[in-house]
Amino acid sequence: MCLITEVCFYSGQRKNLPQKGYRPDIVVDNKQTEYWGISFTELDISDFDTPTYAKAKFTFQESHYNEIHIDQKFRIMEGPREVGNGKILSIIQEE
Which domains, ranges and CATH numbers included, belong to the chain? Predict the structure, then answer.
């Protein structure tokens, strides 16, 4: 399974824009203290503070796919620092 998301990375929080393979944690709105590992498998971003589409997978726990829903918002975290945010657009089964 994988997630189709819309993400935005904040200027001033990272030196460089993330690239394909970026592996931060996310904190989902209804799970406000749980950090979930995520891997961006497709990420073509050209500017900070600009929403862009990205494809991602949960890094460690397949069960997280059952705990999320479309339009759910999340924060992108590097340790305790929030570097961006996003929203889940769809959850798809990969071939």
Answer: 2-92 (2.40.30.10)
| Average pLDDT value for residue range 14-23 | 94
Alpha-carbon span 45 to 53, nearest angstrom: 8
Distance (Å, whole) CA 28 – CA 46: 25
64 three-class SS: helix
- Judge contact between 75 and 30, C-beta under 8 A: no
Rounded-to-integer distance, Cα 89 and Cα 46, Å = 20
Are the C-beta atoms of 91 and 10 separated by less than 8 Å? no
For the whole model, what pTM was predicted? 0.91
